[in-house]
Structures are given as C-alpha cells and as structure tokens.
Amino acid sequence: MRLVLVGPPGAGKGTQAEFIAAHLSVPKISTGDIFRSNVSQGTPLGVEAKRYMDAGELVPDEVTINMVRDRLAEPDAAEGFLLDGFPRTTPQAAALDKLLADFGTALDLVLELVVDDDEVIRRLSGRRTCRGCGKIWHVEFDAPTREGICDRCGAELFQRDDDKPETIATRLREYSEKTAPLVDYYGAQGKLVGIDATGPVEDVTVRAIDALR
Ligand code: ADP
Ligand code: ADP
Ligand code: ADP
C-alpha cells in the first residue's frame, strides 16, 4: 500500500506512522526524520535544511523533492510505503504524483489526522524525542516511567529546537498557508480520508487502520 499521512505539526503523524507502517509491513519515510538525521551528521543537505527548520519554515520544494525521489528509489519502497510529513505543498504533491506515474504506480490513500490548534500546541510543547531510538514521548500524555529517559531503549530524551512557542506559531502558519490546500488536492482525486485524531493514541490507531480497509 502507498499511503500518505497529512495533518498539522503535532497531530500525531510520527506516533501513528510507526504503528501503521508496522501493521502494513511497509517502510515509514519521514522527511522530518531524514532532515534531522542529515542536520546531526552535518551533511550539505543538513546544513541547507537547518536554516529553514530552525525558523519553523518549510525547506524549499526542490531540495525536499530530490531527497524523496532518492528515498523512494530504494528497493524497500518498491512494494509500498508510508510517507510522514511529505508532501507538504501542492508542488510537492504534484511531483509525487509524477514520480509514481513514472514508476507505473500511484498513491492508494491519503490519511488526514484532524486535530484543532489548541490541542496541537499542547502536544508540541510537551513533546520529547529519544536520542537513541527516536521514539516520541509526551511529558503529560505519554510520559516515560523515569523522567527524561526512554523506556524502550534507556537513552536520554530531548526537546526539539523547533518545538519552542515562537517556532510553533510559524509552523502552524506555514501549515495553514502551504499544506492545508493538499486536503482539496487529494479530495479532488477521491483519495482523502479524514479521521478524528483526538483521544488516546491507541484509539486513533484503530480509527486509522479502519480507514485503510
Ligand atoms: P512535525 O512532525 O512537527 O510536523 P517534521 O518532523 O515533519 O515536523 O518536520 C520538521 C521540519 O522539517 C519542518 O518544520 C520543515 O522545516 C522540515 N520539513 C519536513 N518535511 C518537509 C517537507 N515535506 N517540505 C518542506 N520541509 C519539510
Ligand atoms: P528513518 O528510518 O530514521 O525514519 P530513513 O529510513 O528514511 O529514516 O533513512 C535512514 C537514513 O538514511 C537517515 O538517517 C538519512 O540520514 C539517510 N537518508 C535516507 N535518504 C536520504 C536522502 N535522500 N538523502 C540523504 N540522506 C538520506
Ligand atoms: P507530528 O509527527 O504530527 O508532529 P507527533 O507524533 O510527534 O506529531 O506527536 C506530537 C506530540 O503529541 C508527541 O509528544 C506525542 O507523544 C503526542 N501525541 C501523539 N498522539 C497523541 C494523542 N492521541 N493524545 C495525546 N498526545 C499525543
């Protein structure tokens, strides 16, 4: 299955992507994770992306599209994938359609996680990520047993630089200006399914998996 997850920053895309990708046995491709990994390794792509990420802005389409093109060409994505955080603009969506058409395939479904702004702000301000395994935690809604330590792998948790209040505001603005139009784009293709992404993580996962059938 070829699936895209859309929704505002903090909607729970990364959290759900992990369960959904495991359920479907497809690779999870998160552009945010790939950018962050390039930033921490200091690659040229990371150096370029960091300026935008720190400001809460989207990385330019050309850079992002080239990166995704390379990733989708890897053998593990041939039979299906779950894209988390891409596309985020109409040109990215059009480039993805073109890329898949060149491979002789197309997206099956776009799953929209629907959450309001107040909830998104609560989720982003308490988000913590594991430095070791990348698992996503929340100080209040999904807290580890020992503060600041990942239950799964024992490594230290950190707060993302872009989860600061000023940057969150910019990211939400970028979302409504540049990403929200994708709902109409995929709606017009008949591929969009929206689900309520509030409530416990497990309930959202059940709704997401139901929507795939
Ligand atoms: P969140 O999960 O909070 O929405 P991500 O981890 O997906 O955030 O993305 C973090 C940052 O990486 C974004 O604010 C943006 O700067 C950059 N980024 C990720 N995906 C894209 C994309 N598809 N297009 C442009 N920039 C992106
Ligand atoms: P993850 O499994 O951590 O979500 P991926 O499997 O998508 O990430 O990518 C694994 C690693 O490969 C990342 O750490 C990233 O640095 C690197 N990577 C993947 N695709 C690209 C690319 N197109 N350009 C640069 N680095 C990439
Ligand atoms: P995104 O990838 O869309 O930015 P994340 O998956 O990183 O979102 O989730 C943002 C924050 O919200 C994380 O701290 C995560 O633990 C928390 N979270 C995710 N889903 C839920 C939920 N259903 N209820 C409460 N908190 C959640």
Automatic annotation (TrEMBL):
**Where do the annotations place Zn(2+) binding?**
C130, C133, C150, C153
* Root EC class: transferase
Q: In which pathway does it act?
A: Purine metabolism; AMP biosynthesis via salvage pathway; AMP from ADP: step 1/1
User: Which example biological process does GO assign this protein?
Assistant: AMP salvage
The cross-references to SUPFAM superfamilies, in alphabetical order and at most eight, read:
P-loop containing nucleoside triphosphate hydrolases
Q: What is its main location?
A: cytoplasm
* Family named by the database record: Belongs to the adenylate kinase family.
This chain's function reads: Catalyzes the reversible transfer of the terminal phosphate group between ATP and AMP. Plays an important role in cellular energy homeostasis and in adenine nucleotide metabolism.
User: What does the subunit section of this Swiss-Prot or TrEMBL entry state?
Assistant: Monomer.
Instruction: Name the chain's protein.
Output: Adenylate kinase
Supply the source organism for this entry: Micromonospora deserti
